[in-house]
């Protein structure tokens, strides 16, 4: 396997697969014998594949197997051990191609990518407000209209799971190799949400909305964040993640304008806990609210250890935060976490009509009212946030957490 500088990171590979699915740059210097008619198509497919939406693990395995077969021929490595699930799945996929000729594998790879590209071009996934979209965000769609800045989490295929890792984009240079000089794209969602909130706090909008694209509001922390371990080690990763978490939650604590969550579907983990820091929470009748921290060997964040008992009383908060009880939208509304629930069929229409009316209210009055309501708690919330982040830093290093995350990533467990 080539070193980091010579690797191609396919954007949509989960980190757990990424480490071993990375295609060594040097392998992309095709051998002279492979320089046949379809090599150009193959190279173009290799470059095209990086721009595709995540096609799912099954297709990724097919692509991996065809790539290996096309460039190395039949599977020639020892079978990984039974507990090495990811590498075994990859080995099985490659080995299943038997003695398929390299040229056929190359052609099949090209055909597969071409099929994926056309289906992703005609995807029914709407590109909301493409014309009014603010540029520069990879994982969000941010728009400003009618005095409302709308921050929409935009990884619908991953249920809007919130990512940490900074994806590296390598530029393909057909004449030489994949360039080792890559640009770091600010494509991870925690930082992008912070940037969008900071920009919204200064723009001329009266209110700010956070919502999700697709059927989920957000499935919370992207669990593959845990697999992207830096060379400095897992302790360093836990430390930097705790700092990121603290900074992320501080942005919500400090946000100066009315902040509204438009919860379009199920919400999990940190996307639920921070709701206690919003001024208003509108939910679709399809939404659910789930904080399965104990199941994941983790502990509450987002100041929920303070805001939830305050909002719903300690007993109900404990049922959610310790035992992971999932609430329906109606239950969350009855507990005071949600302001109002709307039928899913009319959710968007009713909510946006309401918000447009609110956004016409005098912005300074709304801002001052928010400050009067929230300011006296800010210092306390910051201290709670720091304490929760410290507790999680330790939890992330525990066996309970590691096992729960691995169970999800190897598909043994789902919430
Ligand atoms: C640095 C700050 C850290 C702050 C810490 C916060 C703590 C939390 O937020 S805890 C909550 C963590 N979230 C979860 O545990 C949710 C895990 N996801 C699931 O259980 C399920 O995916 C689901 C119940 C949300 C949805 O199930 P469904 O069957 O409808 O869809 P899937 O096929 O499972 O999902 C589609 C696709 O999306 C990927 N995905 C969904 N959620 C996550 C996630 N949280 N992390 C990583 N990936 C996620 C899922 O793997 C699928 O991907 P593939 O299509 O590639 O298989």
From TrEMBL:
Record EC number: 5.3.3.8
Residue ranges constituting the ACB domain according to the UniProt record: 38-122
InterPro entries tied to this protein: Acyl-CoA-binding_prot_CS, Acyl-CoA-binding_protein, Acyl-CoA-binding_sf, ClpP/crotonase-like_dom_sf, ECH/Chromodomain_protein, Enoyl-CoA_hydra/iso, Enoyl-CoA_hydra_C, FERM/acyl-CoA-bd_prot_sf
One Pfam family hit: ACBP
Enzyme class, UniProt record, top EC level: isomerase
Stored PROSITE patterns: ACB_1 (PS00880), ACB_2 (PS51228)
Gene3D superfamilies per record: 1.20.80.10, 2-enoyl-CoA Hydratase, Chain A, domain 1 (3.90.226.10), Lyase 2-enoyl-coa Hydratase, Chain A, domain 2 (1.10.12.10)
Pathway: Lipid metabolism; fatty acid beta-oxidation
Gene Ontology MF: a single term: fatty-acyl-CoA binding
Disordered: region residues: 116-135
Family note: In the C-terminal section; belongs to the enoyl-CoA hydratase/isomerase family.
UniProt protein name: Enoyl-CoA delta isomerase 2
Species: Lynx canadensis (Canada lynx)
Taxonomic placement: Eukaryota, Metazoa, Chordata, Craniata, Vertebrata
């Amino acid at each position: 396997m080539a070193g980091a500088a010579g690797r191609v990171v396919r954007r949509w590979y989960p980190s757990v697969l990424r480490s071993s699915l990375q295609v060594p740059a040097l392998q992309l210097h095709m051998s002279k014998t492979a320089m046949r008619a379809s090599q150009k198509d193959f190279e173009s497919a290799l470059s095209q594949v990086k721009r595709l939406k995540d096609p799912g693990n099954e297709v990724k395995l097919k692509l991996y197997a065809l790539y290996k077969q096309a460039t190395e021929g039949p599977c020639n490595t020892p079978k990984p051990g039974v507990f090495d699930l990811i590498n075994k799945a990859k080995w099985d996929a490659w080995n299943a191609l038997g003695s398929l000729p390299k040229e056929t594998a190359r052609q099949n790879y090209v055909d597969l990518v071409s099929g994926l590209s056309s289906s992703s071009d005609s995807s029914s996934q709407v590109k909301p407000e493409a014309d009014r979209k603010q540029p520069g965000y990879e994982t969000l769609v941010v728009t400003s209209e009618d005095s409302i800045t709308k921050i929409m989490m935009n990884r619908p295929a991953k249920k809007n799971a919130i990512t940490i890792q900074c994806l590296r984009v390598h530029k393909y240079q057909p004449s030489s190799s994949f360039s080792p000089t890559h640009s770091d794209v600010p494509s991870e969602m925690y930082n992008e949400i912070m940037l969008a909130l900071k920009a919204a706090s200064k723009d001329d909008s009266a209110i700010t909305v956070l919502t999700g694209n697709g059927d989920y509001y957000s499935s919370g922390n992207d669990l593959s964040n845990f697999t992207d371990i830096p060379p400095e080690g897992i302790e360093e990763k836990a430390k930097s993640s705790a700092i990121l978490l603290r900074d992320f939650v501080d942005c919500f604590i400090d946000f100066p304008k009315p902040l509204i969550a438009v919860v379009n579907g199920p919400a999990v983990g940190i996307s639920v806990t921070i709701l206690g820091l919003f001024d208003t929470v509108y939910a679709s009748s399809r939404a659910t609210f789930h904080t399965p921290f104990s199941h994941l060997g983790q502990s509450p964040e987002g100041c929920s250890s303070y805001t939830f008992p305050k909002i719903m009383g300690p007993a109900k908060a404990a049922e959610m935060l310790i035992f992971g009880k999932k609430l329906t939208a109606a239950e969350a509304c009855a507990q005071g976490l949600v302001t109002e629930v709307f039928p899913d069929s009319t959710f968007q229409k009713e909510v946006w009509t309401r918000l447009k009316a609110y956004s016409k209210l005098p912005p300074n009055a709304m801002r001052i009212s928010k400050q009067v309501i929230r300011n006296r708690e800010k210092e306390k919330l910051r201290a709670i946030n720091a304490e929760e982040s410290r507790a999680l830093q330790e939890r992330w290093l525990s066996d309970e957490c590691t096992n729960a995350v691995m169970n999800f990533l190897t598909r043994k467990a789902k919430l």
